[in-house]
Amino acid sequence: MKNKVLVYKPDLLPYSETFIKEQVLAYQRWQGVLVGHRRIPGGLPLDGLDVRLLLNDPPGRVEELGWRLRRWFGWVSRSEVRRLAAENAQLFHAHFGTVAVDIWPLVRALGLPMVVTLHGFDINIHRAWWEAGHGGRRRRSYPHKLLALAQEPRVHFIAVSEAIRQQAIEYGIPADKITVCYIGVDAQRFKPGGLPITQRARRVLFVGRLVEKKGVTYLIEAFAKVAQEIPDAELVIVGDGPLRAQLEEQARSVKGCINFLGALTSDQVKQQMNEARVFCLPSITAENGDAEGFGIVILEAAAMGIPVVSSAFGGAAEGILHGKTGFMFEERKIDLLTERLIFLLQESGELFKVSQAAVNFTKKFFDINYCIENFENLYDDFSGNIVRTKYNRWMTVQMSIFIKPIFTKIKRKIFSKMFSGSQDYWELRYTQGGNSGPGYYGDLANFKAEVLNSFVKQKEISNVVEWGCGDGNQLVLSNYPSYIGFDVSQHAVLICKNKFATDNTKSFALVSDYQGETADLVLSLDVIFHLIEDNIFFEYMNRLFDSSGKYVIIYSSNSDKNEENHTAHVKHRNFTKWIDQNKPEWLFERNIPNKYRYNGDIKKTSFSEFFIYKRIK
């Protein structure tokens, strides 16, 4: 029998929350029951879902008033507890932080653990905005209640992007209570259709709520310039909201074809995507701090082969490879937006390449089946629904002694065959919410920081380049006057850009975007033994030394010994031998052994040591 999760949203369900429906339908190992208090008239069809409404449909005035009072004061309805307890669920999943703080008294009465998905506004909007009452009197205490909820041991948070995770940490939620799980898109349903992308009308499509953070006013202003350059260009705006009348008034002053279609069903939106040449999400950070959490519509467009142009540099940027699957531009930069739109509307060859890359990227990293597996793994880990008897514990010991080693070897052999390359491995790892590994955290990270900060100060280093910046957690501990971090993973670069957005001394870029920058000190930390391919290793080593003017510091293992059952993304190398043979202009200065030398515990110890080189020619 499958484990059961109660997925809650008070109002079921606006079209803008189609992703909740798709997520529940995609569960494989868990049974999802969608729970709400009211059904929205004319809302999203809930066909195929197991639904529980806690109020009558439609609710009477007295009944609804009672619910509102309970929500305001944190009271619990005994009848609701009885009804939901009868479901025999193992987990409760609330969407949005604002919903979670309201429903927690009921969940606590049920005795269930709860996961809370943070989507964007619930963590991006400034605390002062809520506390000033701009979200309503009842929401004044929202920040306080959210942080109190974060202290509950039976509550865990899901961030829909790394940007949202970082924002939640800054808000005050403990980092170890937040897991990144991308929502994902059904790549079987959202796939290229209609005319080939290069044969379509020169149409730009926007889909979203007509609110400030979506930035539609800037899209209309840019499109006015596009229409002057491309008279047959079209702009289609799908969605509704409080700014619609204002935006329609603005559009009437533009000499170009702009159509407002209002809110559409998911199938109707899909049809519009089949007719569009470019998708645009010109989002901005609103005055109150609200910004895109991820922007699932970006993935839907990309999966259908529509190049995306966006200024959503928060979580939404994690779904775009700039220059490959779409284009990013700075918020409110109308000239740059205009340039991007004209380029894609006119350049058929480039349009086709970007379209194909978008489809492949989305299938590889954001297919809903991969993403749901991450959700269900988190459910398994957090629900605590496995009760081990003495027999189970005895069997666990026997498994660890006799069966696990055999299984581990088989698993590693299978993984080795599936392993598609160093770059793909790290891109997928970061995309699915992984980090740079235990070496970037705890005592190991502190040890590296002590050595490097001391060296930079002693040698009066003015600038640093690092090849393999990872998720930036090591960099948090570092004191460098100026720093450039390169990585092969687009997601790692985006994580770092978000993490250090306010630090002007640090910048980040893809390895493929390297422009010949050099520095006094160049770093390679826990990277070399992850360079599986020989040609990649040679390229990396040459670039590592060629980009330094004075010093190179390598933190790595230094041996060609690789055990038969080593993991597919690890290959130890005797790199000092390579340096001796290929870099005669560099002198080995000294070695610093690891304070936490490897003893079998990969989380707290390491086989890496410091090797310091100095340029002598």
- CATH class of the largest domain, please? Alpha Beta
Q: Give the % helix.
A: 40-55%
Instruction: Find the CATH topology of the largest domain.
Output: Rossmann fold
Identify low-pLDDT runs: 385-402, 410-419
CATH architecture of the largest domain: 3-Layer(aba) Sandwich
Our count of domains comes out at: 3
In what order do the strands lie side by side in the largest sheet? 5-3-1-6-7-8-9
Largest sheet: 7 strands, parallel
Radius of gyration: 26 Å
For the terminal residues, how far apart are their CA atoms? 70 Å
- Helices, by number, come to 21
CATH homologous superfamily title of the largest domain: Glycogen Phosphorylase B
- Please tell me the overall pLDDT: 87
Label the overall shape.
Answer: globular
As a percent range, the share of strand residues is 15-25%
Number of strands: 22
Q: Structural class, please?
A: alpha/beta
Produce a short descriptive summary.
The chain is an alpha/beta fold and 617 residues long.
What does this structure look like?
The protein is built from 21 helices and 22 strands. By secondary structure, it is an alpha/beta fold. It folds into 3 domains: 178 residues, Glycogen Phosphorylase B (Rossmann fold, 3-Layer(aba) Sandwich), CATH 3.40.50; 169 residues, Glycogen Phosphorylase B (Rossmann fold); 178 residues, 3-Layer(aba) Sandwich (Rossmann fold). The strands form 4 sheets. The protein has a 7-stranded parallel β-sheet with strand order 5-3-1-6-7-8-9, with helices on both faces. The chain has a 7-stranded mixed β-sheet with strand order 18-17-16-19-20-22-21, sandwiched between helices. Strands 12-11-10-13-14-15 form a 6-stranded parallel β-sheet, sandwiched between helices. About 5% of the residues have low confidence.
